[in-house]
Design goal:
mainly alpha
Length: 114
């Protein structure tokens, strides 16, 4: 009888161990799934941050490019004004030099010696 009791106890323990094995596997699977879900959440958060950073940088770049284009137009307009002013200065200088030369070519009156 003792042998029968030992066999029954052994079979019960084996059945219990076999029944717990799927529960352990289920638990391990759930833990793995939980860890994977946390990793997914972290990846989603990092993507959202990167997307926000990109959108902000892109908007800043576009604003800077627009401002750069505006400043380029202003610089080109100023360059044209500068070139026109240099041209007017050159023409005025030429007129002045011609007037000075014309004065120099006028003979001095004979009675006025200093």
């Amino acid at each position: 009888m003792q042998c029968l009791l030992s066999i029954v106890t052994f079979l019960f323990a084996a059945t219990l161990a076999h029944a717990q094995a799927p529960d352990d596997a289920l638990q391990r699977g759930q833990v793995k799934a939980g860890a994977a879900y946390r990793e997914l959440q972290n990846a989603e958060f990092a993507r959202k941050q990167a997307e926000d950073e990109y959108r902000q940088a892109d908007a800043s770049h576009k604003a800077a490019q627009k401002r750069s284009d505006e400043l380029k137009v202003q610089a080109e307009t100023a360059q044209k004004k500068f070139d026109a002013a240099k041209g007017r200065e050159a023409a005025a200088r030429k007129t002045y030099e011609a007037a000075v030369e014309a004065v120099d070519k006028i003979p001095q009156p004979a009675g006025k010696n200093k």
